[in-house]
Amino acid sequence: MLDISSGLSMKNSISQSKLHFRLRRLFIQSESVRGYTMLSPTFLAMVLGLAMPLVVLFTLSFWLQEYLDFIRTFSFANYFEFFQKPIFGKLLLKSIRISGLVTIVTVLLAYPMAYFIAFRIKKNKLIWLILITVPFWTSYLLRVFAWKIMLGYNGVINSGLKSLGFISEPLAFLLYNPTSVVITLAHAWAAFAILPIYVSLEKIDRSLLEAARDLGETAWMTFLRVTLPLSLPGVIAASLLVFIPTVGDYVTPSLVGGPRGIMIGNIIQSMFGESQNWPMGAAISVMSMFTVAIMISLFLWGTHSYRKRIA
Amino acid sequence: MNLDSIIDFQDVSKSFGKVTAVDQVSFDIKRGEFFSLLGPSGCGKTTLLRMVAGFEVPSSGEIQIDGQPMSVSPPNQRPVNMVFQNYAIFPHLNVRGNIAFGMRKSGMRKSELDQRIDEILELIKLPGYGQRAAHELSGGQRQRVALARALIKEPKVLLLDEPLGALDKKLREQMQIELRQLQKKLDITFLFVTHDQEEALTLSDRIAVMSEGKVLEIAEPNELYESPSSRFVADFIGAMNFFEGRVISQDSSKVSIATNLLGDVITTCKKRFPVGTRVWVAIRPEKLIPQFNKPELEGTHLKGTMAASAYLGDRSHFYVHINNKEEPVLVAMQNLERSTTAVQASQNVWLRWSNSAAIILERN
Amino acid sequence: MTANKPWWRPDGFYVYAVLYLTFIYLPVLFLPLFSFNDSKYIAFPLKGFTLQWYSEMINNPSMLNALANSVKIGLVVAILSTIFGLLAAKAVTRYRLPGRGPIVGFIMIPLVIPEIILGISLLILISLANIPLSLLTVGFAHLLLCIPFSMLVLVSRMEGFDRSMEEAGLDLGENAWMTFWRVTFPIVLPGIVASLLLTFTISFDEFVLAFFLSSIEPTLPVYIWSSLRFPSKLPATLALGATIFLISFVIVTFAEWVRRRGVRLESTSGI
């Protein structure tokens, strides 16, 4: 009797330790398992803070709000309102237009600067890179604020030109319109655009350029046929990094845009502020993200066919 | 399991997804040996080494070090140490710091440790280098520090992953001699991975030739060179000439092979072949002796014409074109006399060999 | 390809670069300029030097309170996001992970999503979960924003040094934790310092998320936003802005210098 039970318990403990052995072996053997374990805290934090909220946002867009309570029944009412009232669609398209303009201006201005640091600076690259990246990290709000004081009716530019005698009346067109929004944002995002372009230019093997020159191309053609295509990933990244956040921006339109310069972000913000219609705000947000996703797909498809064509 | 073995591979395999890097390897390494794993890139030798070190876990099979199974032991608990291919010298520590790194848990008093480090610095011929920063060291110096760092722990086996690959020729040859002396002096087993067969032949007590995850042959250098057991190994180690042949007869002392070009070859052979088997008759280039004057008995020679030649200072290599043979025959000749006359292309040359130089290998 | 031009004919690119940098820095330099100006109006001509706006700024208890809030959140977010970023960077650079691309892409989403969307989504989630708004909710949102930045800095740092260093550490007898402490950590340290400084600055300067997720206790940017509505407070706000800009500038310059200098140190050791 004793033999059997002690035999059984020994068998149990052996199979337990065998299981433990096998689990341990799996853990040590599978690099992926160890890697994922290490990644998990960060990943979980991001799921909690990113995936869940976005799901909730999407869900909320189908609800309705009455005063301070949500009516949790499924309804397309918000989306109907979005398509019926012209202001939403118009504002969204206007925001896309403005963001597109900002992106083009910013990237066009940033490219030569990135090119300069990548190709023309041999020593002291570090200093130039620091000069470029540092403003990128400091307060966005302050940079917009700086433009506000620059462009105002009695602001820096106007008063400066006035006291220098160039104008007698202040220029009214500087502030509170879409143009001021574009200028301010192009300034705010400048460094954001330079960095990805710089990185992809830096990676280009210099001997490729030498080979092109050796084969008879002029400097300009070398740029068009070799440098530009190879830097395209950086340009694409820069464009996306500027375009996407700009669409939802409300700070800049709020400070320098005036009534003519408001964008879709201002409407969304008011839905969560004075207008107190969260579900509507959620619906507008979803529509905005959806539109942005479409624009990006078109953009990527366009650059993809361009790359195929020149290949 | 042999008490003489210090590492025992038992049916070890390793796959990465669909790729089999190591395929059912079984052999053992003797205590105190300088053992080399030799093979082309991708043959699995580095993977095998890393499994001994503990950085890869075998997909199946078992590795025993000094009788202890090692498969679930992490690298830091194994009685082996490794010299990495790129040396992996810690940039934030100086030479002393690097060498002392693994001794933290040894419980040694500081004075004792310092003395040990000084001794090791002498051993690797870098006396007084203790305070040097990592980035101030040359490639060769870094390699010695990597060696010292591993040796100070007195491992049972020292693992070396192509340590001499990045060094220039002269330095490499010097380091080869030093490594061999070091190994003999310390009486530690060395497991050495290389793709350079000359290096393996120079350094090793025994060599395992690997290809595509399998171990093809394990033998002492001269046996591997003079009596390889397969065409791959014969061709991989040094250069080799192959002639087609067929077995006529075989008895206890000798085997007779019929060939088109060499006539009937009679030599000794360890392997048994049934009559009629297709074989290669393989002869090393230095075992073919050329003469440029027509011999009296032409039938005992192989006749050909000079295709190309290379002058290497102490010896010359000739490529000789033989009728009815597709590939030219390579002949290596010692330049025993000072001669300034070059050999003419298309010149006739007659090759002589002795039957005992012929190696018989299976042909499929 | 580029011939050496005589010094009096500047390279076109160089001229462009200088103009561009002027464009970037000039508007911001007006902040400190007018913060010392003895006038309630932010306009030319300059009226005279004064420090009254700075003293007004310092003697404002609600401003100091907002400053303290921002510093508190900034410190916590910097440390936490760097830890998370370090774990993720180590996992991504040192282990073979199938599906790594999409996961990293997912973690990077906060970099590209419009902040307002992120802000309102978190607001909705937190409200539905009946969690009250506070500095903690702001901190959590900042953590989400900063983790991708931390990861970017640390991944580039960890990719730059060879995996075999850590294997050597293990081989020489240290377990995983001690290997991290004695090998990985000292080498990655410049990246960690840079990440701490960068994430602190991002959190410190961040406005949109803080706006949506704070309640009565404001952070400094939120405080500035509210004081922008009062023109009489404008010069003092300028003074505050100038100060913040200067501090951020110094911190970030130091961070970038540390990070890039660390990279250089390694390339000379030639491994």
Describe the structure in brief.
The complex is a heterotrimer of chains A (311), B (364) and C (271). Chain B is an alpha+beta fold.
Keywords:
heterotrimer, B: 364 residues, alpha+beta, Rossmann fold, OB fold (Dihydrolipoamide Acetyltransferase, E2P), 5-stranded antiparallel sheet, 22% helix, globular, C: 271 residues, mainly alpha, MetI-like fold, 75% helix, disordered C terminus
Describe this structure in words.
The complex is a heterotrimer of chains A (311), B (364) and C (271). Chain A is 79% helix and 2% strand. Chain A contains 14 helices and two strands. Chain A has a two-stranded antiparallel sheet. In chain A, a hairpin with a 2-residue loop joins strand 1 and strand 2. In chain A, helix 4 runs parallel beside helix 8 (178-188), helix 6 (140-151) packs parallel to helix 12 (251-257) and helix 13 (264-272) packs antiparallel against helix 14 (278-310). Chain B is an alpha+beta fold. The longest helix of chain B is centred in the middle third of the chain and has 18 residues, at 169-186. With 271 residues, chain C is mostly helical. In chain C, 75% of the residues lie in helices and 0% in strands. Chain C has helices at residues 12-35, 52-58, 61-94, 100-107, 109-112, 115-128, 135-159, 163-171, 176-205, 208-213, 220-227, 234-268. Chain C is globular and about 70 Å long. The chains are: A mainly alpha (311), B alpha+beta (364), C mainly alpha (271). The interface between A and B is small, with 5 and 4 residues.
By CATH's scheme, which homologous superfamily of chain C applies?
A: MetI-like
Order of adjacent strands in the largest pleated sheet of chain A: 1-2
- How does the helix and strand content of chain C classify structurally? mainly alpha
The overall pLDDT of chain A, averaged over residues, is 80
Total tally of structural domains of chain C: 1
Q: What oligomeric state is this?
A: heterotrimer
The Cα radius of gyration of chain A reads 28 Å
Task: Give the CATH topology of chain C.
Answer: MetI-like fold
Query: Number of helical runs of chain C?
Result: 12
Proportion of beta-strand residues of chain A: under 5%
Indicate the topology.
The complex is a heterotrimer of chains A (311), B (364) and C (271).
Chain A: H1 2-29, H2 31-60, E1 64-66, E2 69-71, H3 77-84, H4 86-120, H5 125-137, H6 140-151, H7 156-164, H8 178-188, H9 190-202, H10 206-214, H11 219-247, H12 251-257, H13 264-272, H14 278-310
Antiparallel strand pairs in A: 1-2
Helix pairs in contact in A: 4-8, 4-9, 4-11, 5-9, 6-8, 6-12, 8-12, 9-11, 10-11, 11-14, 13-14
Chain B: E1 5-16, E2 19-30, E3 34-38, H1 45-53, E4 60-65, E5 68-69, E6 80-83, H2 95-100, H3 110-123, H4 139-151, E7 157-161, H5 169-186, E8 189-194, H6 197-203, E9 206-211, E10 214-219, H7 221-226, H8 231-236, E11 241-250, E12 255-259, E13 264-267, E14 278-283, E15 289-291, E16 302-311, E17 315-321, E18 329-334, E19 348-352, E20 359-362
Parallel strand pairs in B: 3-8, 3-9, 6-7, 7-8
Antiparallel strand pairs in B: 1-2, 1-4, 4-5, 9-10, 11-12, 11-14, 12-13, 14-20, 15-19, 16-17, 16-19, 17-18
Chain C: H1 12-35, H2 52-58, H3 61-94, H4 100-107, H5 109-112, H6 115-128, H7 135-159, H8 163-171, H9 176-205, H10 208-213, H11 220-227, H12 234-268
